[in-house]
Write a structure and sequence with these properties.
Elements lengths: L8 E2 L4 H4 L3 E2 L50 H7 L11 H11 L1
Amino acid sequence: MAKDSPNLFLINMSKKQRTGRIFLDYLRNDRMSTAVAPLSPRGRPGAPVSMPVNWNQVREGLDPTRFTVRPYRRARQEQSLVDYCDAERPLEGAIRKLVAGKR
């Protein structure tokens, strides 16, 4: 993709070179590299889940293995999703740029 459409895609990790293009991270495409949705179980011992946390919850001693598929207090789970969508951004502008770049 990067070779066929270098104006749209690139494989160089440099953020400076990524402006206006989509970075294709081929290094994440292997058996041990995973990406999961929030609250999804991970294929690891203890069945941990991918838990969204706010930056103010990140501190020394935070143990990600404590977030498991076992219910540990429904109120806590619901609280973990408060403000989850605050980072949401519309895609229309990015789509327009991509379409314009194809012309």
